[in-house]
Amino acid sequence: MSANPDDTPTFQSPEVNGQVPTEAQRALDLETRLPLTGWQQEVSEGLEYGLEAADSIRDRTIPTFSRGELPHYAGINTFLKAPYLVDVREVGKYDVAIVGVPHDSGTTYRPGTRFGPQGIRRISALYTPYNFELGVDLREQITLCDVGDIFTIPGNNEKSFDQISKGIAHIFSSGAFPIILGGDHSIGFPTVRGVCRHLGDKKVGIIHFDRHVDTQETDLDERMHTCPWFHATNMANAPAKNLVQLGIGGWQVPRQGVKVCRERATNILTVTDITEIGLDAAVEFALERALDGTDCVYISFDIDCIDAGFVPGTGWPEPGGLLPREALYLLGKIVQRAPVCGLEVVEVSPPYDVSDMTALMATRVICDTMAHLVLSGQLPRQEKPAYINTEANMHVDMAWV
Ligand SMILES: [Mn+2]
Asked: Which of 28, 163, 203, 353 is 20 to 30 A from 132 via CA?
């Protein structure tokens, strides 16, 4: 081998059976194994309900009225253009249910997350149901519905919390995997309360991606978006020792919340911790602690865990957060190895967004989670997970005034 004259390192690709064993090569192979049944059904329904195209259209899979994925800029935007489920009593027939929680009365600085569900649904129209590297096609592999939004009560956190807990309990107990589009982070308490109502004596660990601890009892005299984990970890089904907080740090962490983290011994990693111990070690840290004595894991993903430069459309942007690919790597590895019982993505505020990029990041988090649930065999649902108790216990949380 002759030396490179200008000292530029030369890349030598290792070959196995004449092929370069890259992720890209693997992805090319994986695609051949995916069926096209769902796509063919979408085409035939499109032609039936949307009429065959005008005579000049050569591609005869195209209907006159757009009735599916294509074109991406057309149509009525549910999440990923999934069917809108009018009768929520039917939700248990689906593997995954998307639900919006348009609530921002818990916001203490920039409002606007009440438009989060709409913003996420709108930009989700950009996505296909297929991911190249993962070799997953959601249209072919799971059933997905969008149940629309919870009827929240503007200006009243407590009444909204009661609505949210009732709605999430309904979806969770049906067996459909709940994916919640926030909304500010105050909804983290009532969403987890909805799950806990149907856990019986089982327990849930919470993995919380955020720049903020969100553990103080009250903020501005109410249970605001800085407070969900104080109240969630008061429930016996959601012990504080199983709360894992990833990406915490900066100039917006209230000292009264820090005191609660110390007292309750929650499990915190800063961005520096994560980058210094490495992403795989951070995944081990999270799984070990969230799964210690619990039966399932709930993921609460605050979009502001990612560096503010990537997610300007949020309530309390804080520079110095995770890079998108770091956050997606952590999330993917965690979902692959934990029994996940639900996901919420919160703090997307479209009025402050730029080019829909914050809402797009939320869409990415949701689609990646679904794909990793497929790859780990958690979806499609074979049967209702054993940690779900059909009976509702309405007394999982203590009275609070
Ligand atoms: Mn936050």
From this structure: 353
| CA distance to 101, 222, 280, 298, 375, per residue, from 194 (Å) | 13, 20, 31, 12, 27
The CATH number given to whatever domain includes residue 200 is 3.40.800.10
Mean confidence (pLDDT) of the chain: 95
Token pair belonging to 252: 């917006």
Count of domains for the chain: 1
DSSP code for 170 = H
Give the integer Cα–Cα distance in Å for 157 and 138.
35
Is residue 52 a part of any domain in this protein?
Answer: no
- Give the single-character DSSP code of 377: T
**What is the DSSP-derived secondary structure letter of residue 382?**
S
Residues flanking ion ligand 1, Cβ below 5 Å = 210, 212, 302, 304
Strands (E), 229-308: 243-248, 267-270, 296-302
Distance 350 CA to ligand 1 centre (A): 16
Q: Could you tell me if residue 7 is inside a domain?
A: no
Give the domain extent around 181: 79-375
Within a domain: 44 = no
pLDDT in tens, 106-149: 999 999 999 999 999 999 999 999 999 999 999 999 999 999 99
CA separation for the pair 67, 59 (Å, rounded): 15
Dist. CA 215 → ligand 1 center (Å): 11
The rounded Å distance from CA 230 to ligand 1 centre is 15
- Residue 109, classified by CB atoms within 10 Å of its CB into exposed (0-12), middle (13-18) or buried (19+), is exposed
Is residue 215 domain-resident? yes
Q: Ligand 1 centroid to 318 CA: how many Å? A: 8
Q: How far apart are CA 112 and CA 349, in angstroms?
A: 5
193 Cα–ligand 1 center, Å = 20
**pTM score, whole prediction:** 0.95
pLDDT in tens, 221-279: 999 999 999 999 999 999 999 999 999 999 999 999 999 999 999 999 999 999 999 99
Q: How far apart are CA 326 and CA 375, in angstroms?
A: 19
